[in-house]
Amino acid sequence: MDAWTQSRYGGVAEVARTRTEIPAPARGEVLLRVRATGLNAADRHIMTGEPLLLRSAFGWSRPKQPVRGIDVAGTVVALGSEVSGFAVGDEVVGEIPAGGGLAEYAIAPADRLVPRPAPVDPVTAAALPIAGGTAWQALDRAAVSAGDRVLVLGASGGVGTFAVQLAALRGAEVHASCSERNRPLVASLGASVTYDRRAVSLADLPESGFDVVVDIAGDSPLRAVRRLVRDGGSAILIAGEGGRVLGPIPRVARAAALSLFSRRPLRPLAATAKPEALRELLALAADGRIAPVIERTWPLAEAGAALAHLAAGRTVGKVVVTVG
Questions:
Q1: In angstroms, rounded to a whole number, what is the distance separating the alpha carbons of residues 84 and 88?
Q2: Which residues are paired to 178 by β-bridges?
Q3: Separation between Cα atoms, residue 226 and residue 234, nearest integer Å
Q4: Average pLDDT, the chain
Q5: How open is the CA angle 269-273-277, to the nearest 5 degrees?
Q6: Tell me, what's the pLDDT at 244?
Q7: Whole-number Cα distances in Å, 23 to 74, 77, 80
Q8: What's the pTM?
Q9: What does the DSSP 8-state code read for residue 42?
Q10: Cα 142 to Cα 225, 286, 291, distances in angstroms
Q11: What pLDDT does residue 248 have?
């Protein structure tokens, strides 16, 4: 099969199109004929091996899984032992723990997959799991409900575009910070107020003006973020960036310290794969109530260009690679 593989950590230059053997599913796994793969910041982090802390999970000297691509929509073509609930020919979507989606075939744990509804095309489905699931979990953790005033910082990326839509669906009044050029897009997703993040600083926004702040950008001082939350509200910290060695861990530790005995807690979110949330997201997409913002798609033959675009860090919404 065709696959984009890397033998060591590094930039896009370390990832090359190769021919490799089709893998076989083990117990509890299925083999997918990949239809589409959504790319995320997690793929960039695993590709580069930074922050270095992640190598303890993904491989010290090189990635244990050489193929990037965690979010996958595909067709089941073979079943490992002890797999129930799926059959050959089923159309499914889900997260592959360490990647594998930038290939014609991929192995996925059956318990990470859910059926893809017929009205949801593979490209749309592949854009949902990590970004949509993270936004879903952030709003759940903050218990966002009708009438809340929610501020989304970094609203034009993959997670942000879903957070705006999902908060608006819950009946919240959504305020959003993004670049000036993306303000019309973010407003079209359901934000009632948008701010140019370069022209309007957090200090310009009202103190205690929001029930919930969802911080995706991750580059604002924590005290400035906390200042915006009313007593009894909370700020959800999503950003996974940070230093080269420990990544976001120091920021998480500072947030914990600042939240001791505080009525405006800063709550870091380590999103995990939740198939039940993905089912809900797919149902909303099938009904036309949410739609991923897909900046661009690339064919598998040009997946290196898709990774380069992702690595540049200026993606609006999602980037998806179509496979078959």
A1: 11
A2: 196
A3: 8
A4: 96
A5: 90
A6: 87
A7: 15, 12, 11
A8: 0.95
A9: H
A10: 15, 26, 22
A11: 85
